[in-house]
Structure formats: structure tokens, C-alpha cells
Amino acid sequence: MRRPRLRLASLLVAATLFALGCSDAAAPSDASTVVSADAGGDAARVADGAADAASDAPSDAPPEDPVDAGPPADPVAAATPGEWTWVPIDGARCMDGSPTGVGINTSPGADGLVIFFMGGGACFNASTCAGALHATGFGPSLFRVEISALGAAGPVSRTSKGNPLRSWNFMYVGYCTGDVHAGDNEAGATIDGHHYVFTGHHNVALALQRLVPHLRGIRHVLVTGLSAGGFGAAYNYDQIATAFGPEVDTSLVDDSGPPMPDDALPPCLQQQWRTLWNLDATLPADCTACRSQSNGGGIVALLDFILHKYPTRRFGLVSATRDGTIRDFFAWGRSGDCAVHGDFPAAAFNDALLSLRTREAGTALRTYFVDSSSHTWLFLPDWNVTAVGGTTLSSWVDAIATGGTANDVGPGAP
């Protein structure tokens, strides 16, 4: 089941094509060739330049005297406003154990911050781990390639006039942990001959410790993400809200990471995640219901916990009514055996979404449902042109982020 990796690769290519199409210059007729060159070119050009410089140096040149250049510059302090900067996070690791970090893009004077979680599948058996994004690491070179494409549209675009949050500060949390940014299993596990660690939630905690003290003047935070990053945004909401404190207005928009009750999401699959990713260590300590299910289910209790702990905050869920990708992942265990990939019918998924909306009526949760089987909506033209019932997705997200009026949108909305 390698389709999740292909979906994300297609997303990156399509995002780059969209960026080319929206530029003032005419796009080349062979756009795919340009995308291929750009997508792999940054790191290659840096390496080639270093090799050329080394070959040009005289072989008999005398050694230079050592110079004490002092400690390396703090990348946060040295960040150029309006440009993306890679910040290594000490102790943060990808699923292969390699170090990683986050991207920041600052906007002096702005009191808003978007924290965006990237998606890219999940790793919990041989089939799903084979498709997890960046399973062999995510560092500054891959970050530059990824953000050059994804920064063209959506809520972390500085250049898209259709982004109502373009003047805010941005933090980009790439995806390389395979655990929907939720795990804290440093010992890890061996799956299909590969040893993986799962530290997504711990990575976020380290990033917050590193960066929150530098983010002065923040009064509004939007926590968001797509697919695995949508789940990650929701899962990390409590620790992010806690890190910024009660005086900061922290909101959430989860794109295509829908929480599901046990009758839609098999408890044996939830138990598999709890064990492999060590979720009981990362669920909020004061969410007793999150851990109370003897069969391993009940992770959906996290949603109720957040909604009741933060009754004055704003929360949004974006989903297609028949999302084929999420149905693929949630189909494991539908037959009662979590080693078997079953079938999650589109009608059953639709019913589960509408039931979730009904169950949370009267809370701060708002839903934006699109009658479709597609997956993810915050990037590409979807962000600005997707409109359901006359409400564009970008304006709806803006209302969630800034305290405007956001209603339930889409099929079954009251």
C-alpha cells in the first residue's frame, strides 16, 4: 500500500505547478521538466558548488591559521523576516533516528502565528510503513524543496493574495515520524526488517521549548495541518495551548484528520497505535477518558476533552464526506482482525462524519464538509476556490483563526 507516498509526491509536484501557473511570468510549455529540475536542484546545486570550489583550490596552498569564529549564530535570532529559515531542534528525531527540526518564517509586528503540521501517511505495519513520507529523514535540503512548493498556496504562503493570514508568523512542522505527530516511543520497533522510532509528539514539545521564548507579542495562534498533520494538529493542540498560556487565543483547524468513534475506527487498530507509538504517554495527563477503554478504543475522547477544557476557543474540522485515503487507513481491522485490510464503505464514512457533527452540536467545533472522495483541501487552488454553500474555505478558516463567524458548512449542515 504505497499510495500515501505517491499522493504526497503528487501534492508537491502539483503545488509547484500551481506556483508556476500563478507567477507573473508565463509558465514554460514543458512544466513537468521544470518541476523535476527545481524539485531536486537546490541540494544538488549546493553540493556541486562546494565540489567546484574544492577542485579550484590550489593543492599546494599553505594551511590557513585557525580562526576563532565564536559560537555559531542562533538561526532563530539570525532569521531574515519574511523568509523561511531551518531551525534544528536538539533531540528531535525522524523515524529512522536521524535529527530533524522545523521551519520558521517571521513577520515582525504581527501578533498571529500559524503552526502547520505536514502530513504523509502513518506507519503501523509493513504495508503502511512502506508509504510513510520521509521515512529516511527530513532536514534542511528537503525542507527547502518542500516549502518552495507548499509555500505557494495555503495558510503558510507569504505571497498568495488569497491567504488571509499571509502577514502572520509561520512555523512549519515537516513530517518524518510516521506517527501522525503523536508518538513518544524512543525505543521503537522493528517492522518488516526496519527499525523505527516514533517521537512526533516529543519533537513538538522540544520545538515549543526552543521557540516559544523567542515568539514575543503573539496573541493569536492557529494550529493546523493536513492528513496525518491534521491528526497531529488536533493531537498536539493541548500542549501547544499550554505552552503559549491562557492569554494567547489558540484555535485549531484539522484538515482531513477526522476523529472517529469506536464503531467507525476499530478498537484493535487504536490499541495498535497506543502500543507502537506509546500514545498513553502523550495523551493529556488530565484526560482520564482517553485511557479508560479496556479494548484499546476511545481515542475520540480527546476531542471531547479539548472542547470542554477550552470552551471559549474555536475549532474546525475539514473533510470530504467520502475521503478515500482516510477510509483506506481506517479499513485495517474492519473485519475484527487488525492484520487484515478490510473495507470502509463511503456511506459508512459519511454517516460517521455527520454523527460526529450532531454529537458535538452546541460545542465550539465547526465543520466544513465537501461532498467528495478527495483528500486534503488547504493547499493548491482548493484553499482559495473551494466553496461550499457560498462559503470559501479560506474565509472559513480565517474566521476560525481570528474570531469571526464560522458556521457548519456542507452536506447535512443545519
Written overview of the protein:
The protein contains twelve helices and twelve strands. The chain has 414 residues and is an alpha/beta fold. The chain has one domain (3-19, 75-402): Rossmann fold. The protein has an eight-stranded mixed beta sheet, sandwiched between helices.
Name the CATH superfamily classification: Alpha/Beta hydrolase fold, catalytic domain
Coarse morphology: globular
Look at the structure and give the CATH class.
Alpha Beta
Order of helices and strands: HHEEEHHEEEHEHEHHEHHEHEEH
Strand content: 15-25%
- Count the DSSP helices: 12
Number of strands: 12
CATH architecture: 3-Layer(aba) Sandwich
Short overview:
The protein has helices at residues 3-22, 31-56, 126-129, 140-150, 200-211, 228-244, 267-277, 301-309, 324-330, 346-359, 382-385, 393-402; strands at residues 85-93, 99-105, 112-117, 169-173, 185-191, 194-198, 220-226, 249-255, 315-320, 365-370, 387-388, 391-392. With 414 residues, the protein is an alpha/beta fold. The strands form 3 sheets. An 8-stranded mixed β-sheet has the order 1-2-4-3-7-8-9-10, sandwiched between helices. Strands 5-6 form a two-stranded antiparallel ribbon. Strands 11-12 form a two-stranded antiparallel ribbon.
